[in-house]
Protein 1
Amino acid sequence: MKSISLYVDKDSYLTRLHPFAKMVYILAAISVPFIGGALWMYGLFLVISLGFLISGGILKKVFPLIAFSFTILITIFLIHGLFNKENETLLFRIGALAFYREGLLYASRIGLNILNMLLAFAAFVLTTKPADLVDDLEQMGFSPRFGYMITSVFQIIPQMMGTMNTILDAQRSRGMETEGSLITRAKAFIPLISPVVSSSLINTRERAIALEVRGFGSKTKKTFLREHRLSGGDKGFMFLMALLIAASVVWRIVYGIH
Amino acid sequence: MNHLFKTRLHAATFVLIPACIGINYLGKLFASVLKLPLWLDSIGTCIGGVLGGPIIGAVCGAANNLIFGFTTGDSITLIYALTSLGIGAAVGIMARLGHMEKLSGAILTAVVAGLTAVVISTPLNVIFWGGATGNVWGDLVFGWSQSAGLPVLLGSFLDELVVDVPDKLITVLIVFAIMKGLPKKLTSLYDVNDEVEILD
């Protein structure tokens, strides 16, 4: 069964870094440029994230993620480059379309922000196994019931995908059209989705009974097979990120906006 | 009325939430397989809201976006966790008020959910995307509003409005149809108004 997680099973210093340390990195990567307000800060974190991804050997896996948000980036550049309210200085023309400096600058700020977020998250997502993340959260005192909820999403989705393919085949073999005009495709949606949804909801009842039988509601404290504590390196990394955030606050106070 | 926010936290609810998140994922997948110009990624959240009430609906919505954001690298969805939370809560409240029993009520629920989504998403769109949403139809409206010189906030509001309200309308109608077909032995698991009678 294909997992929906993007975790790449590869032993590197990034996979060994504690998930919390990586989360603190994401926090820093998003908040520092946001607080500091300078454009070069996006660049700084883009370079750091790229450095992480290259040194972790997972750069190739990032491209599909970036491609995914490419259309929205183009839309933003088009709309703001052409129609932004503050547009004054003409930069260049393509045919009848005139692009302005102010709008493009605004769009590139948004574009950098998106790219920065994507890469920072990629460094986290590609190197953290969801099950380990949940385990670490539970060891920090996160409710094991919610922990179960998260892990079971990863079991349920591949199962549902299996059911979905069965139903897609079954409905097609009965002659249902799933390709063609918008109306045909829209009409196909309900006979496809409703059997999957009903069957998965009906399955929840049995799952719930199975869980209750295995002591899901038990109030006793849980113990862990594998204890994962923050190492000295993890703590040092988190401290460094906290320093960066503090530095951006100082920067903002000293230099103001931009 | 005092049952509006009452929530049962037993094994059945903790199983319902992942199932709802899975349904959200499937809805989105089917919409992209069939190339429909809608998102349809909140069917599960709405089911969670209708079955479990506003709190479960909100948890479903928020958990959905957080889980996908942190594991599939789709950090864009992370921002919209707030929107999903609002949709789940809105549908849950409307369902508890008894609006999901008739078709007219379902349409009203859809409008409320759609407007909730629009109100929460618009500021997020403006902050993170400069007003665009990434949906072709919505962005055409946004592009038009910007070329007509309307403020970004209003343009983004219209952008979100033309996509979200029809999207939620179809979502809630699908949910309505599915809920009608669910067996009583399942729905009774989540019913908060039932009473346990003891024989002895």
Protein 2
Amino acid sequence: MSILKTSRRKFLKSLAFGSAAVGAAILGILPAIKGWIRKMRPPGALNEPDFLASCIKCGQCVQVCPVDAIKLSDLTDGIGVGTPYISARDQACDFSCDGLQCVLACPTGALTHEINYAHEAEMAVAKVVALSGCLAIKGEGFKGLARGADFDGKLRYNEIDRWHPIPLNEHPYDLESCDLCVTHCPIEIRYAQCEAGNPPSGEERQCPPEHAIRMKPLEEYGDHFFMPEILDGCVGCGVCEMICPVDPPVIVMEAYPGSGRVL
Amino acid sequence: MSLLSQSLGQLFGKKPTKPDPSEFSEEALRIHEEHRQRRSKSEIQAIHEAREAQAKNTFWRRRRWGILISVNLFFVASSVLHINALEGALTGSRFVGFHMADLNSALQVMLAFKQILINLLIGTITIALIWWLLGGRTFCAWVCPYHLLAEWAEILHLKLKAKGWAMDIKFERGTRTWLWLIFAVLAFISSYTVYETISPTGILSRALIYGPGLALIWVALILLFEIFFSRRAWCRYACPIGLTYGLVGATSPMKVQYHLDDCFHDGACRQVCLVPHALEITKPQRATEAHVDIGADCTRCGRCVEVCPTQSLTFEFKGLSKTK
């Protein structure tokens, strides 16, 4: 009887121990399952449920990114511990690796190997949300550092160094009319290169088929008033959100919906 | 019962059983009989002295910790210095361009995603072959960063327990088998790699390489639980990674081997062992052969090898080392 009792107690303790482990694991993934939080994923990411199923959480995409745009999520981020995301305002993906290095690095295909070029990515939906703050719509120019001296984000400037991105705070601007979001758009840069007959790496396939953003003239206000307009070629890389010198930024990236699926 | 089925049974949580008298080889019977007779007081005295001296031996532990720390620092150095030698983390990595994938993480992804990319398959097979060759759970003792922290926690636990400030709750060892199954089924039906959320191995590896995060609180909680309530609880009763590697190593040529003839059955090995059930064979009247391989749950950590006062346990690599 006492042996039975002891073994029953041991069984119950083991049940409690095992349940605690399973419970903690489910609790940890619950915010991701419920899709309570949405974050931008790296280029090539599968739709959120497939992405969460296939990401092995190794961070190889983090290591190859030349601008350190990709971060790994923590317990409190609620999008699956150790999965990669991009916080565009802090550091957007400017495709300065040209070859989609994160996609190539992914061992499981969570970042699908089916895309090869910047214009094939679908990372987020760019939305113009704070138009009243936009310098261009007020007809203003911009002088100085886009994000201040303390900002540690980087961008690649073809004309400065084709191979190495430089810190934004080492690159002051003096613009008559602010059009940073358009001139820094990686898709627009490629589009212009192709139009000039000089596609990136000499590859026609690098050429985006459509424009991603433009400054729309507001002639009714006068000849130096503009507003940014997102076009069909936008891939949601977030450079416009990152470079926008006003706070809050005029354009923000809206991540694709989380799964919202339970089992 | 064959050695392999015994070894697997123990891995899944079965209690080791006393062998049937018919199972003993003649040689083993002879040695057991000798052991019963030869113990004079002076002999036992000598063994006790040797045991005390040997208990402080950390020959293998020092080397093992050196390798464990080196492997993990190699990941860190590769990332920090951008030398691209060993990219990624323990869950998935690339060694000079060659894919490697942790077996349990790969299994979780395959079950959840239900598609297998060739890179992942290559990485999984590579790692399975490497750890089959090196002993399976060798991964636990020689690479897993949680194992190292758990060993430090264990040293503290034993000190506290000696003072009566900590207890050692024993759970059913089969709990780990159930958790392995539950996490496999959960990955399959939910399409989420559920176990990865709480895997201290993955959390620690990523924390080392990509910087610490709040997920470390979970790791600290498990360690505290082990220190105050249950010795080595995670590795003993929970971790599905350990079971996966145990299965891979079940037929490995790399073994710790027990030599009955030299053994005085004083049990020093079982006291230091993470999986003492695997060393039940060292009790009197248990070994059915003169030389017996320790089972699949063994992490090849070498603690028993270094503390045994009579060198009755040794590392053996089948085909390379001469069996005594």
